[in-house]
């Protein structure tokens, strides 16, 4: 009997807590997360602003050490010495949402892409490596872009330069934080198609952090929906986005342009990681509790008072919701 290979990247019972300011309660930005990303898999991490998804992504990159729990890569726990993190960041690269902020306006495209090679003491042919990375990112012929500056490029071209800067070290996984949020709609499809092509050609894995469920639908194999520091629903993208079971996922989907029915307007206070409620952490804003469906299903008290367990990090369909489980 063959055993399945370990996930390429894995978070196990991950917690990240920041101290409160001026005597305020600590902020539990990541509050118990299990998340696996397999080799060649694209996972979308979805949620509204303030849900903890960027903190989780930074922790997976080793930029923020966890308060407890651990991050593993290729089956080995991540170490936080300078040497270990430098080696890790050759294998896992970050792509930020704002290419203008990611690129030094005084550096040419060549220098921007070559920076990672120089930091890591690359011993090969630098010019060839830069040209190959630019070509893979869709900037061809690459030599035509070597001496250009960021202000001479379009937004889509700048994002391709950022992607080339990540690719030049030949990583196994990229973490893309809102990779198309600052781009025109006409360019977004090109960048998404590029990420999918890189997965096909290079076997690249990706974690795509986004608030946009439409983007997740177009690019991801699997989706993890995050609310107030935890994954509340996860599974194959087709399962979750065609038949969402968690009320929060339903609300996020309801405001997409082509969504059927009436958009769900969430009431109550926005999520505050320093004031996590008892019971289901979404219950204070939950439309299912407000409209009486949870009461009719006999789970209203559980919603308000019984906390749900942390979901597993694998690929199976899971939901952290008393009502969804009662009405299967």
From TrEMBL:
Query: What Pfam families is this protein classified in?
Result: ABC_tran (PF00005), oligo_HPY (PF08352)
Q: Which SUPFAM superfamilies match?
A: P-loop containing nucleoside triphosphate hydrolases
Q: Where is the signal peptide?
A: none
Q: What molecular functions are annotated in GO for this chain? A: ATP binding
Q: What are the record keywords, sorted?
A: ATP-binding, Nucleotide-binding, Transport
Report the residue ranges that make up the ABC transporter domain in this protein.
Answer: 9-253
Q: Does the keyword ATP-binding apply?
A: yes
Family to which the UniProt record says this protein belongs? Belongs to the ABC transporter superfamily.
Matches recorded under PANTHER family: D,D-DIPEPTIDE TRANSPORT ATP-BINDING PROTEIN DDPF-RELATED (PTHR43776:SF7), TRANSPORT ATP-BINDING PROTEIN (PTHR43776)
The name under which this protein is listed is ABC transporter ATP-binding protein
Say which species the protein is native to: Streptomyces bluensis
Recall the taxonomic lineage recorded for the source organism: Bacteria, Bacillati, Actinomycetota, Actinomycetes, Kitasatosporales
């Amino acid at each position: 009997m063959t055993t399945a290979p370990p996930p390429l990247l894995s978070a196990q019972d991950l917690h990240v807590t920041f101290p409160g300011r001026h005597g305020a309660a600590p902020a539990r930005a990541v509050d118990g997360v299990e998340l696996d990303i397999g080799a060649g898999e694209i996972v979308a991490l979805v949620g509204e602003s303030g849900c903890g998804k960027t903190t989780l992504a930074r922790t997976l990159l080793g930029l923020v050490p966890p308060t407890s729990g651990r991050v593993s890569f290729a089956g080995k726990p991540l170490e936080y010495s300078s040497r270990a993190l430098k080696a890790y960041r050759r294998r896992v690269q970050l792509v930020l949402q704002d290419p203008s902020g990611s690129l030094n306006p005084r550096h040419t495209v060549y220098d921007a892409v070559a920076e990672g090679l120089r930091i890591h003491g690359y011993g090969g042919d630098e010019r060839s490596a830069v040209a190959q990375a630019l070509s893979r990112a869709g900037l061809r012929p690459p030599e035509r872009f070597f001496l250009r500056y960021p202000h001479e490029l379009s937004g889509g071209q700048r994002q391709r330069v950022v992607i080339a800067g990540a690719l030049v070290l030949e990583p196994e996984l990229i973490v893309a934080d809102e990779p198309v949020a600052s781009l025109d709609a006409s360019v977004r499809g090109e960048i998404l198609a590029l990420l999918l092509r890189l997965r096909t050609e290079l076997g690249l894995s990706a974690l795509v952090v986004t608030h946009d469920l439409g983007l997740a639908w177009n690019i991801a194999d699997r989706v993890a929906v995050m609310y107030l520091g935890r994954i509340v629903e996860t599974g194959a993208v087709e399962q979750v986005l065609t038949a969402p079971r968690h009320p929060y996922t339903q609300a996020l989907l309801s405001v997409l342009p082509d969504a059927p029915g009436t958009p769900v307007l969430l009431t109550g206070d926005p999520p505050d990681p320093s004031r996590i409620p008892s019971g289901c952490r979404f219950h204070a804003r939950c439309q299912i509790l407000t409209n009486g469906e949870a009461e009719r299903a006999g789970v209203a008290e559980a919603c308000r008072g019984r906390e749900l367990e942390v979901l597993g990090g694998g690929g199976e369909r899971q939901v952290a919701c008393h009502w969804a489980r009662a009405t299967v």
